[in-house]
Specification:
This protein has 178 residues and is of the alpha/beta class. It has helices at residues 2-19, 30-41, 69-80, 103-118, 148-159, and strands at 50-56, 59-66, 87-95, 130-135, 138-144, 166-172. It has one domain. Helices cover 39% and strands 25% of the residues.
């Protein structure tokens, strides 16, 4: 019961952190990026998680022990949401449960983080108007979108993520739902 209570607290803090993102110009140094990622991940310190962050050439690596796949996905989303982060490597996150984080889950988390960083739909995960899933490197979008230009920008960003083979969209746009 305590674990569920802590997880709910964590989700609330996560929402606050995501809404208070700090912005950098595209020329951010690795040190600035690394500090911003660490600041956003500082919420984990109160839950006893020990996640180390390093950034080199805009690529942020996460190393440490965590409790679940859900925590891994949230860590990746937070790190990818930081301006200046080009990619997130999480190969050295150790999950203390039997499940392992799949490359498809990593891709989906990176997409969500990138959408937050670019503020395509807003500043929170809940602002994304459609579902994002990845299967064997193919990203599937489904639901209702805001506009054709926003959807095109989202697809363009998705294609820039390492490991993405293709993007399929079943997103319905306002002019299509008449």
């Amino acid at each position: 019961m305590l674990l569920i209570s802590n997880f709910i607290k964590f989700l609330l803090f996560f929402a606050i952190i995501m809404s208070c993102s700090s912005l950098f110009a595209d020329g951010s140094s690795d040190a600035e990026i690394n500090k911003a990622v660490k600041d956003k991940l500082s919420i984990y310190n109160q839950y006893g998680l020990d996640v180390q962050v390093t950034t080199k050439n805009g690529v942020t690596s996460l190393v440490g022990d965590i409790n679940s796949v859900t925590e891994a996905k949230i860590l990746i989303e937070i790190a990818q949401s930081v301006p200046g982060v080009k990619d997130v490597k999480a190969l050295r996150l150790t999950i203390n449960e039997s499940n392992k984080l799949s490359s498809d889950e990593v891709i989906t988390a990176k997409i969500r983080g990138m959408f937050i960083r670019e503020k395509i739909f807003g500043e929170k995960i809940s602002d994304i108007p459609f579902d994002v899933q990845t299967t064997n490197g193919v990203v599937h979008l489904d639901g209702k979108g805001n506009s054709k230009s926003t959807l095109e920008r989202a697809v363009q960003l998705i294609h820039g993520i390492s490991g993405v083979k293709d993007v399929t969209s079943q997103v319905k746009l306002p002019e299509e739902t008449i």
